[in-house]
Amino acid sequence: IMPGAFAVKMPDWKSEKDANDSIQLLKEAINKSNADGVLMLVLTEDPAFIAESLNNFLWVCFTRINPTHDISGVNEFIINKHWGCKGPIILDARIKPHHAPPLVPDPVVKAKASQILKEASESKFNS
Fold it and tell me: Beta strands of 1-124 (E only): which ranges?
């Protein structure tokens, strides 16, 4: 996504238990490896979409994550009621059953809008 932040392809979200189990396995694997420089992992079905642009990253992270359920970290801890982690923070940004369907542009409408804008732009500069 950007230096230190990685989009990780994961299987589709099935249940809270399945998500917690797979994240625990991921944490254990990270603890056994050298993860220096890895600050954030964003779990997703489509890493290419998230990494395509900052807008996509922000959209996914702020619409698919419930902070009380979908944020964890490697070597998590709580000190004086403040949560932290000593390894990468993990955001589970996979699509959940309660989410609205993704907003996907209709190619016909997009083409028509582009044509209208092109014509408007040409007429403005030809006047």
Answer: 5-9, 40-44, 71-73, 76-79, 82-85, 89-92
